[in-house]
Amino acid sequence: MKTVNHWIDGKSVEGTSGTYGSVTDPATGAVTTRVAFATAEEVDAAVAAAKAAYATWGGSSLAQRTAVLFRYRALLDAHRDELARLITAEHGKVHADALGEVARGLEIVELACGITQQLKGELSTQVSSRVDVSAIRQPLGVVAGITPFNFPAMVPMWMFPLAIACGNTFVLKPSEKDPSPAIRLAELAAEAGLPDGVLNVVNGDRIAVDRLLEHPDVAAVSFVGSTPIARYIHTTASANGKRVQALGGAKNHMLVLPDADLDAAADAAVSAAYGSAGERCMAISAVVAVGGTGDELVAKIRERAEKIKIGPGDDPTSEMGPLITRAHRDKVASYVAGAAAQGAEVVLDGTAFTGPGSAEYADGHWIGLSLLDKVPTGADAYRDEIFGPVLCVLRAGTYEEGLALINASPWGNGTAIFTRDGGMARRFQLEVEAGMVGVNVPIPVPVGYHSFGGWKHSLFGDHHIYGNDGVRFYTRGKVVTTRWPDPQDGGVDLGFPHHR
Fold first, then answer.
1. Mind giving me the DSSP string for 103-149?
2. Within the chain, which residues score under 50 in pLDDT?
3. What is the DSSP string of 434-451?
4. Strands (DSSP E) along 377-427, which ranges?
């Protein structure tokens, strides 16, 4: 059986704990890989390697850093199909979706290649007689990232390329459910010439996470995952004096106004709700139909959803794959099973789907597409983040009622509006309480040179991830006031310094 070990100080390091996690092929349910779980001492070794590497990397020139990153970008591009296959094998998403994940990660590597523009700093001359003031940004030191199972390549690439471009060194703790892509990313970084110790990967569970959160040599922690864990990461790491960005869960709403193109809205709802089997923090999981649009919109969504082909991710004809684990599959199914009793109308029930039919896939983590209509706001299917292919439709009489419903949600990750009315769209983008807004765009994930992040219970900490916020998160500011003496200057002045 394949074993995934740690990557510390530029080489693969076997685990010493004797504890391993099982990695399954979601399409078959078969255990294909075991992953070593790190001890606290192994985490310490990774942090020590990063700290030692920082002594040199933190003072390296921008030209040296970007030269490595340009080579890294070329290697990632050359190996994108390989990375996508690793993602599919352990996560289950279809190959085309996995390729898209790698492409979005590459956007941040490209941003990191241009870090020279992001770190130019500021200069004000002659603020007083022969006095200049400059503002510069410097790296933090050793930083850590804790990443989720649903994007095992993209989310790590949202973090470490920018962090190391800024001069930091990095310790990554990927999800134990699909760890192989993270190790391959580290191997390719070494092949690109990244010095040993600059990027390290430790696999494991809470033992590894807690050690990173409390380690005195870790200056900052980035996290993406569920809201309860994001809150824990933020609270624990902050209590240990670290800078934290912790991105949590979501319940993303799509508001459909009566003037919207309902065919386009239905296409968008199906794509955004069921893509990657709903295992996206930016998935649309709640559609709010305004006015009399509900019945027609639900009919159009159902028509499209019934045609989606579910199958193994390595089958090019598959449009949606299985869920990550059997336990998660059963949890998702439970929301559909209880929906009718809580007042929802079950339009499509995908819980009976058991796979593509072949005996090879009989034990896979399969579930079909579910569509719930007229869902009460008190129903579990609406209140909880399901993280699966379940779409809830709610009804609202007016725009104001729909907006109030969205803003009452404890989450504020992403949202979208579908309308032909520019004035209403502009009003929505100003009034809605969410960090990312789409106008006729169902999944408003920003491009790499903007920042990704939500509001309310979708983000703990002040910084969004990647873009300008990412650069600011991985650096700290310093202001330098300079005066070069003139031979005629002299004398003692005990007054408070002021500008003249």
1. HHHHHHHHHHHTHHHHT--EEEEEEETTEEEEEEEEE-SEEEEE--S
2. none
3. -SEEEES-SS-PPPTTS-
4. 390-396, 411-412, 414-418
CA distance 311 to 289: 30
Burial class (CB in 10 A: 0-12, 13-18, 19+), 120: exposed
CA–CA distance, 262 with 300 (Å, rounded to integer): 8
**What is the model's pLDDT at position 492?**
77
- Half-sphere exposure of residue 199: CA atoms within 13 angstroms, side-chain side: 28
- The catalytic residues are 281
For 388-401, the pLDDT digits (tens) are: 999 999 999 999 99
SS3 letters across 29-95:
CCEEEEEECCCHHHHHHHHHHHHHHHHHHCCCCHHHHHHHHHHHHHHHHHCHHHHHHHHHHHHCCCH
Q: pTM surpassing 0.85? A: yes
Both structure tokens of 259: 């003037």
Helical H runs in 153-261?
Answer: 154-165, 180-191, 206-214, 227-239
CA dist 276 and 187 (Å) reads 26
Q: What is the pLDDT of residue 499?
A: 60
In the three-class reduction of DSSP (H, G, I as helix; E, B as strand; rest coil), residue 281 is classed as coil
* Cβ neighbours of 449 (radius 10 Å): 15
> Can you tell me the distance from the alpha carbon of 101 to that of 270, in angstroms, rounded to the nearest whole number?
19
